[in-house]
């Protein structure tokens, strides 16, 4: 083969030795986890719970939407806490400070609360947002970890999250500060959940695709097969003539009914296997569904929860 044209020459791999990697010992990792635990303990031991209570009560009393804002890692935390509140049936939203200055601030009203997360309290984007938000009549709350900062001084309320230091060896990467922000926000969210007496059913209604939602929302009548979807037959029907009906409806059974559509029993795939074992020769062609069906099947009403039906189907002695 000829060489590639000059324009298609592939770049050569970089020269030089790869960076030196030290082996990570179990002791080193364990010490890091212990250090982070100590930093978190410092937060819990020094948090001003009167501030936390005032903050939580203010959110509980809010007549409008609770907005959260932040930049960088604090922004991710603010967005997550807002999403948690929404899932708990509390009106909340994340407000990007940059987008807010380009039109999104129009979402704010005098009935709203704006919570600003910032470790230093000197985040330029949030400081630029403050006067604009105040002009909308919003109640402003800062959540910071540095004392006597510009953001706290300009807000109506400040919550100080005590930070001993970042786990980062340079005390720079925001890993401990964001951890305590998340701990604080999520704990307040659960406090609001309790104060608003949110029921398990209300919670499930906001999670319809999740396991909890499905178990608490859907009733048997919501998920059961109906009318033409049902694999039905009469007890006098020959078993061999009902094999298509048994397999085509995807239920694994036949519902044996009388002329008024009352359920007399069920004939399952298992019943068919037992029939084939017991019968021999031409006898199989003469057996009727009523001869081999189960006349005491497990039943459940249409208004029962679907999860109850599943539990009943899977319970012993024959799950």
Q: Can you give keywords for this protein?
A:
14 helices; alpha/beta; CBS-domain; 5-stranded parallel β-sheet; 2 domains; 8 strands; 3-stranded mixed β-sheet; 319 residues; Rossmann fold; single chain
Question: If you had to describe this structure to a student in words, what would you say it looks like?
Answer:
- The chain is an alpha/beta fold and 319 residues long.
- The chain has two domains: 36-198, 3-Layer(aba) Sandwich (Rossmann fold); 225-301, Roll (CBS-domain), CATH 3.10.580.
- Helices cover 43% and strands 12% of the residues.
- The protein has 14 helices and eight strands.
- It has helices at residues 26-46, 49-61, 73-87, 97-100, 124-135, 150-154, 176-195, 200-205, 211-217, 220-223, 243-248, 269-278, 289-292, 306-314; strands at 66-70, 92-94, 113-117, 139-144, 157-160, 232-234, 253-257, 263-268.
- It has a five-stranded parallel beta sheet, with helices on both faces.
- Strand 7 (253-257) and strand 8 form a beta hairpin.
- The protein is elongated and about 95 Å long.
- The chain starts with 25 loop residues before the first helix and ends in a 5-residue tail after the last helix.
- The model has no long low-confidence stretch (mean pLDDT 90).
């Amino acid at each position: 083969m000829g060489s590639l044209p000059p324009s298609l020459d592939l770049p050569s791999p970089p020269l030089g030795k790869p960076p030196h990697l030290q082996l990570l010992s179990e002791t080193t990792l364990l010490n890091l986890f212990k250090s982070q635990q100590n930093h978190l303990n410092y937060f819990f031991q020094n948090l001003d719970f009167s501030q936390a209570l005032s903050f939580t009560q203010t959110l509980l009393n809010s007549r409008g939407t609770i907005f959260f804002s932040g930049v960088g890692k604090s922004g991710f935390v603010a967005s997550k806490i807002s999403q948690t509140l929404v899932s708990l049936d509390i009106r909340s939203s994340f407000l990007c400070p940059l987008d807010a200055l380009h039109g999104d601030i129009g979402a704010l009203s005098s009935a709203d609360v704006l919570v600003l997360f910032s470790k230093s309290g000197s985040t330029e984007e949030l400081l630029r947002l403050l006067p604009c938000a105040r002009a909308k009549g919003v109640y402003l709350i800062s959540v910071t970890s540095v004392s006597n900062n510009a953001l706290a001084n300009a807000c109506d309320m400040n919550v100080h999250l005590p930070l001993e230091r970042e786990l980062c060896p340079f005390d720079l990467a925001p890993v401990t500060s964001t951890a305590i922000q998340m701990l604080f926000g999520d704990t307040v969210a659960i406090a609001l959940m309790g104060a608003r007496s949110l029921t398990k059913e209300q919670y499930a209604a906001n999670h319809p695709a999740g396991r909890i939602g499905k178990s608490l929302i859907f009733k048997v009548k919501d998920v059961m097969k109906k009318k033409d979807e049902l694999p039905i037959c009469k007890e006098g029907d020959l078993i061999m003539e009902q094999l298509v009906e048994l397999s085509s409806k995807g239920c694994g059974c036949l519902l044996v009914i009388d002329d008024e559509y009352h359920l007399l029993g069920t004939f399952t795939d298992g019943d068919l296997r037992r029939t084939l074992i017991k019968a021999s020769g031409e006898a199989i062609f003469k057996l009727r569904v009523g001869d081999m069906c189960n006349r005491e099947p497990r039943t459940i009403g249409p208004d029962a929860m679907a999860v109850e039906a599943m539990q009943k189907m899977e319970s012993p002695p024959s799950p």
